[in-house]
Amino acid sequence: MSSKITSIISIFIFILFIGCSSEDGESGNCGEVIDVSFNVYSSTSLSLTIKAGHNTGSFKIEYGPAGFAKGTGVSITTLNTVYDIGGLIPSTSYDIYVTGICDGVENNAFYKLSNVTTRQSRCAGNTELDFFQFNPNELILQFLYRDSAPSHYEVEYGLAGFTLGTGTRISTVYLQKTITDFQMDKDYDFYARTFCSPFEATPFIKYTYRTVVPCPKPTNLRSNSIIGLCDSPDARKSIGWDHQYGSYQNFVVSLIRTVGETPGANTITTGNNGEILHGPFCEWIGFYVKANCNGGSSSEWAGPHYF
């Protein structure tokens, strides 16, 4: 009887030992990264697929240029077993370390990928950006990229001197993009780039543009004698000008008698882009003109134009 009891106790202890050994073994694998595969799918991005051991909750990924010292690279923590790394440099080799995290504790063992090289960039050219403002409230951006058919364009803008990354960023698949959220008569910086594919982009190119004033002054002032000499009552002289954009109510013409005379006196108001002067008008040697626009604003004086 004593022998049977001893045997039963021995079997129980053996089973208990096996169970504990199994649990300890699983605990030892907790957080261990077993394998990492990768796919380099562009010149700036790659994808990692991680295979981990028992109960791994998350992963720490650290990467940097090939040969970098572990602990000095870019670190990311993720719950996903598939993870994309972007923002890499084309034609560059990277080392990648992956460790598992179990119950908030990082495993001492790491899995290393060495000399993972990104593809050569297909984005070799620069993005050209032109500006057109036919309306003071709208600015048309026109993109041009000459090296290939792009995926899309991207631009970030703000008042001159802003830091890239803090401005307004927009993208478009079209050659033109109209923006309206800007102040008039201000300098703006624009950073433009082209995506040759959804994941590959050219470097940003900076452009600066000054938005137009709300009521532009007239341009191309001109005059022409139609008939007779200036001292004749029947004499006629035409004066004219152009208006670039926007809606105007009328124009104010200021005739001057001497060189250097400032505008403001001897005025004529007209709703046309020109006026006919009736003789005699020998005392007048030239004119200024300004626009009165809708909304109550007025342009600067344009001129003088001398006859």
TrEMBL record:
Residues 32-121 form the Fibronectin type-III domain. InterPro entries: FN3_dom, FN3_sf, Ig-like_fold. Signal peptide: none annotated. Gene3D superfamilies: Immunoglobulins. This is Fibronectin type-III domain-containing protein.
